[in-house]
Amino acid sequence: MIVRIMGEGQVRLDDSHLAELNELDDELLAETKSGDEEGFRRTLGALLDAVRRLGAPLPDDSLEPSELILPSPDATLPEVREMLRDGLFPT
Amino acid sequence: MDAGPVLWVLLQSLEPESVRRGRAKPMSGVMKRMGMIFRAKANKALDRAEDPRETLDYSYQKQLELLQKVRRGVADVATSRKRLELQLNQLQGQSSKLEDQGRKALALGREDLAREALSRRAALQQQVTDLETQHQTLQGEEEKLTLAAQRLQAKVDAFRTKKETIKATYTAAQAQTRIAESFSGISEEMGDVGLAIQRAEDKTAQLQARAGAIDELLASGALDDHSGLAKDDIQSELDRLSGGTDVELELQRMKAELAGGTSSQQAIEGGQGKTQAPQQPQDTPRFDKQ
Fold first, then answer.
1. What does the DSSP 8-state code read for residue A59?
2. Which pLDDT score, from 0 to 100, does residue B215 have?
3. Is A1 helix (H, G, I), strand (E, B) or coil?
4. Cβ contact (<8 Å) for B158 and A62?
5. Residue B270 pLDDT more than 70?
6. Rounded distance, CA A2 to CA B77, Å?
7. A14 backbone dihedrals φ, ψ, rounded to 5°
8. A11 contact B CB<8A
9. Please, which contacts does A45-53 make with residues 24 or more away whose CB atoms are closer than 8 Å?
10. Is the dihedral of CA B109, B113, B119, B121 positive or negative?
11. Cβ distance A34 to A51 under 8 Å?
């Protein structure tokens, strides 16, 4: 499974980690929807840590698309909301 | 979307594997949704072209344009950073000047003047700290954009090679899938880089507005003059006190020497301690930022 961290690049990680990431990802969406700024920062940080820790960076010249895409570490809650709204899927 | 057989193949290949295998609920989190959004955008672009091969050439042009844009972005951020460095130097120069004035005023027995000089200096230091933070921000942006340009360059090169191979072997059914894959990979990168540039531009614009304000302040002399008196009133007062020369100061120093040792030096430092907080001991270089 390939994950992109926006502004940083892509990593490949084993599918077995999906459950752990899913849980955090669901949490992040809930916090994004409810506007829980503090929770959003914490969960985004935890997700980024997990992805960096579990994943191996893809070479720069790889053209593989990512399955999952994480906002950049300094993305704000409103920015993430905007990106999700932008993308055809209502939050 | 009215997808023909070619597009159907393309779309199939773009669906996340985990969803296809039923391991993941679709769209239940931020990462998953963002993944879908980027794929949807890539699909939409592919969908427009009759022949996906045209899309490859068109996309390659766009990639080159974006690459130019990132490089310009790096240059713009670097320019802003250098401007900040210039301002920092100016402010720090101003700050040392005020400190010297404070010291001189104190030596001439004018604690009120010294206090004024040092409180202006404190206000300046505030600006310096502020600018230093901004400087760090810009450095961070510059670094990020530089790396983004490197990544994009590598991907664009890879894409060009792949594009030519795909065009040469287009009749093969699997070529269609490969178009979709390489296309959505690079289009994802382009989306990411596009946003990164936008963010950097926004940050730079904000900082530039503030840098402009500081330039104006520096030019107007308002930073010298919080009291609304004439420009550099402290200096004129000091000049007046010492008759435009350092005669008085010299006299004080000689008296002190005659009285023995470095007592005058100590008096100065003691006096400073009572006024605004002096940051460093007197004989170490104070603003060694350069």
1. P
2. 80
3. coil
4. yes
5. no
6. 31
7. -70, 140
8. no
9. A45/A73, A47/A21, A47/B31, A48/A5, A48/A73, A50/A17, A50/A20, A50/A21, A50/A24, A51/A3, A51/A5, A51/A11, A51/A13, A51/A21, A52/A5, A52/A11
10. negative
11. no
pLDDT digits (tens, 9 = 90+) for B206-251: 887 777 777 877 777 655 544 444 457 788 888 777 665 566 677 7
What tokens were used for B46? 């592919």
**Confidence at residue B219, expressed as pLDDT on a 0 to 100 scale:** 76
Query: Given an 8 Å threshold on Cβ–Cβ distance, is A1 in contact with B41?
Result: no
- For residue B171, what pLDDT is reported? 63
In this prediction, residue B223 carries a pLDDT of 58
Token pair for residue B90?
């100016």
B interface residues, A as partner, C-beta within 8 Å? 14, 16-18, 23-24, 27-42, 144, 148, 150-151, 154-155, 157-159, 162, 181-182, 184-186, 188, 192, 195-196
Q: Which of B162, B163, B151 is nearest to B193 (CA)?
A: B151
Q: Say whether pTM exceeds 0.80.
A: no
With residue A87 as reference, give the H or E element that holds it. none
What whole-number distance in Å separates Cα of residue B90 and Cα of residue A58? 45
Tokens for B93, please give them.
């120069």
Kindly give, in sequence order, each residue whose CB lies less than 8 Å from that of residue B284, ignoring residues fewer than 6 positions away.
Answer: none
CB contact under 8 A, B158 and A61: yes
Point out the residue among A61, A64, A87 whose CB comes nearest to the CB of B33: A87
B interface mutation test: which of A63, A64, A74, A89 has the most B CBs within 10 A? A63
Confidence class of residue B285 from pLDDT cuts 50, 70 and 90?
A: very low
Q: What is the pLDDT of residue B278?
A: 46
For residues A2 and A42, the answer to whether their CB atoms sit within 8 Å is no
Cα B55 to Cα B35, B47, B58, B150, B167, distances in angstroms:
21, 9, 5, 24, 11
Q: Is the pLDDT of residue B12 over 50?
A: no
